[in-house]
Request: fold
Amino acid sequence: MKKNIRNFDLEEIKEMVVGLGQPAFRAEQIFQWLYKKGVDDFFQMTDIPQDMRNYLSENFSVDFLKLVEKFVSQDGTKKFLFRLSDGNYIESVMIPEEDRITVCVSTQVGCKFGCVFCASGKIGFIRNLDVSEILGQILFIRFKENVRISNIVFMGMGEPFDNYDSVLKAIKIINEKNGLNIGARKITVSTAGIVPCIKKFSDFGKQVRLSISLHAPDDRTRSLLMPINNKYSVSELLNACKYYISHTGRRITFEYILIEDVNDTEKHLFQLIKIVKGLDADINVIPFSPVEGINFRCPDMEKISWFVAELKRHSIRATVRYSRGKDIKAACGQLAGRRFDVEKKNR
Ligand code: SF4
Reply:
C-alpha cells in the first residue's frame, strides 16, 4: 500500500524533491497544496511539473479520511466517525464557540491505559495513528466542513504521549507556516501522566499547552480511576509538572472529572488544594458525562459549585467546563469509535 504523503514533514519533502533534481521551493508548493488548499489528488497541483506529479502519484497517496457518519448535537458540536484504511474506526469532534472553533483529535485506535471513566479505555489498545491519520481528522473538518479552525486539542481517543513521535511531528505540521499555520499556543496536548514524556515535552521548544488528566489528588483514589497511577504516582506526576513549569515558564492545566462520591468529597477537595496551591496551574473541573456500562454519576449542581468556589477561595484558578455534545456521545470520555453500532447497522 502507498504511504500517505502527509506522513512527511516539510524537511523530508524538501529532501525528496532535491533528490529528484527539483528546486527545494517545490516542497513548499506541495505543502501548500496539501494544507492550504486541501487537495486529494496530485494532479490538482497545477504549478508542480507533470513529471513530478506522476512520480508523486505513483509513490504516495494523498487521500482524505473516509467519513462514515457525522453526528450533530443540539449545541452545535459535531462528531465525525472515520473508517481507516485497515477497517478500524476513530472519532473526532468539532466544537464551535462564539470566538473559536476547536477540533478534538484522536491519536490512537483505542487506548491501553484503561481509565475507568473512559469509553476509549474500554476498547483496549488497537494501534497508533500515523501522522497522516492525525492530520487527516483536522484536514477533513477544515476542508469538507469549510471552517477556519482556531484551536486543536489532543483529547480524543488515545493517549497522545503513547504515540509521542507522530503526535509531535503532526504538531509541527499544524504549526508550520506552509502547513495549517495554527499558533502553538492554540494547540493543547493532554496526557494521563506519562512522566518521562512530560519531561521530554518540556524540551519541545514550542509554546504548545500541556494539560494533565489529574482526576484525583491522592494515590488511592487516582489508582482506582487511572491505572497509570500505579506506575507514576501523584507525587512523581507533580514533580514532572513542576519540572515542566520551571523549564518552560508556562502554566499547566489540570483536568479534574468530578464524579459523585468518588473524588468530590471534602477530603479530596482539601488534598487537591494542598497539592496544587502555589503551582502555576489552572484546574478545569469537568462534571462527569455518562458512559455506557460505567456506573458513575455526576454530582449535583450545588456540589459542583461548592467544589469550584472552595478552590477559588484558596486562590486557585478553577473553572467548570461542561462537556459539549453529550447527546451525540462526543463529550469528555465518551469517544469510542462506535464501530460496533456501524457494523450492526450495515449488516
Ligand atoms: S482517559 Fe485518555 S488515557 Fe485514559 S483510557 Fe481514556 S483515552 Fe486512554
